[in-house]
Amino acid sequence: MSQDKKKLDAITSMEEDFAQWYTDVVIKSDLIGYTSVKGCMAIKPSGYAIWELIQKQLDERFKKTGVENVYMPMFIPESLLEKEKEHVEGFAPEVAWVTHGGMSPLQERLCVRPTSETLFCDFYAKDIESYRDLPKVYNQWCSVVRWEKETRPFLRSREFLWQEGHTAHATAEEAEERTIQMLNVYSDFCEQVLAMPVIKGQKTEKEKFAGAVATYTIEALMHDGKALQSGTSHNFGDGFARAYDVQYTDKENKLQYVHQTSWGVTTRLIGAIIMVHGDDNGLRLPPLVAPTQVMIVPIQQKKDGVLEAADSLCERLSDVARVKVDKTDKSPGFKFAESEMRGIPVRIEIGPRDIQNGECVVVRRDTGSKETVKLDGIEEYIKALLVTIQKDMYEAAKAHRDLHTYEARNWDEFKDIIENRPGFIKAMWCGETECEEHIKEETGASTRCMPFEQESLSDVCVCCGKKAKKMVYFGRAY
After folding, report:
1. Which region holds residue 66: left if phi is over 0, alpha if psi is between -120 and 50, else beta?
2. Cα–Cα distance measured from residue 278 to residue 280, given in angstroms and rounded to the nearest whole number
3. pLDDT tens digits for 365-397?
4. Which pLDDT tens digit goes with each residue over 394-417?
């Protein structure tokens, strides 16, 4: 018991050291384990169950838009990768290479996929012949490898899980429509399922995906005031198609290049959930991605009838929630703390007196509030409570985001905010990369996105004073 108690005790306060708090939470809530492979994590059952719920609900949303799942190889021949120069240069520092098969050197190096644009292009070049073959709206769930120098669980690791959609269309208009459509799928998912508000917009030329015509993004604000890119959707135009000769015969029997898109989210979303909703007691999971939504804790469970009552309650609630009974021999206090650490949205306490009175105690993880509730009609109560918690968690996260979003109209204001008030900064920008780079060099803040909903805060760039072209969200980021 002393070792178990120690496990729950040592969470660094997020106000004291947010980075250490984050690491403590992912370890002590049993989401990951470290491995002998540097920079790679073992995702434990509690962590993987969250990913499965993300995957399941996202996949359903994808398929409603006509997406089909496929799978491509994990190896890319070097010659294939080099066909799109800009793309290669963007990923070159992060590529892992296979040079031997068994004991024999390979005739050509194989890249372990950092992303799969080249593979899909190669596939589409063979699979698409006529306009009748279009559109191709494919997605794959897989892992990718990027040789990151600095790693952190879920946020940045050398191998991570994700989905990557790759589509091919007959026209530029169709490709742009799909690019925006998938960004909206991500935005709705984050807000409705993860209870995480996001800003939608376009990346600058400097920040866009290598080889893309345009990159669109959703940006979220973490509790510590740093931004997290939480999903991206790219319009490739016909650039990749020209590099890989992906053509089709149109209705006039003329050869045309396809227009392509790519879009993806990763297990970094689990890190976002932790950093948006967590507190000094551990995780706080939105009900829609909580593997266990309700934990029943029997009080004085050795007394006759207590475990039976807990099991009966579990069975009743199983139609409205993912529910478990904690039958371990740990103390009730420890079970409470463990349930809080794991972020379980609702805890139900039931003991001899509760059974006698036909009631139970219901505790919300998000607010800590307790309420004595009659067992009669408990199913509808819990069903409604989970909906309320989901909504309240989103509203709390949105209020935090809005409270930590600032406006800067000149360079002195910008520097003061970035140093003293962590969060998003809305400011006008001239559109010049030189200015963008100067801001990042001087303050550590990058352009997060040019939001679709533009505002005119002033007529001049916050940095150089020249005529402004766009309002931009800036921020220090993960």
Report:
1. left
2. 7
3. 999 999 999 999 999 999 999 999 999 999 999
4. 999 999 999 999 999 999 999 999
Computed from CA positions of residues 322, 328, 331, 334, in that sequence, does the dihedral angle turn out positive or negative? negative
- DSSP character string of 313-346: HHHHHTTTS-EEE--SSS-HHHHHHHHHHTT-SE
Closest CA to 293 of 257, 220, 250, 342: 342
Q: Is the Cβ–Cβ distance between 70 and 142 less than 8 Å? A: no
Exposure string for 346-381, b = 16+ CB within 10 A, e = fewer: bbbbbbbebbeeebbbbbbbbeeeeeebebeebbeb
Half-sphere exposure of 226 (CA within 13 A, CB side): 13
Task: Write out the two tokens for 161.
Answer: 């899980």
| Cα–Cα distance, 296 to 336 (Å, whole number) | 10
Q: Which residues contact 101 (CB under 8 A, 6 or more apart)?
A: none
**Contact indicator for 267, 31 with CB cutoff of 8 Å:** no
Number of other CB atoms surrounding residue 195 within 10 Å: 27
**Contact assessment for residue 165 and residue 236, using Cβ atoms and an 8 Å cutoff:** no
What type of residue sits at position 26?
Answer: V
Burial class from Cβ neighbours inside 10 Å (0-12, 13-18, 19+) for residue 66 reads: exposed
Burial class (CB in 10 A: 0-12, 13-18, 19+), 456: exposed
Q: For residues 299 and 297, what is the distance between their CA atoms, to the nearest angstrom? A: 6
Q: Give the whole-angstrom CA distance, residue 213 versus residue 237.
A: 6
Burial (CB < 10 A; 0-12, 13-18, 19+), residue 330, is middle
CB 82, CB 237: distance < 8 Å: no
pTM: 0.95
Q: Assign residue 72 a region (left: φ > 0; alpha: ψ between -120 and 50; beta: otherwise).
A: beta
Instruction: Measure the CA dihedral 50/446/473/162, to 10°.
Output: -20
**Tokens read off for 178:** 């799909």
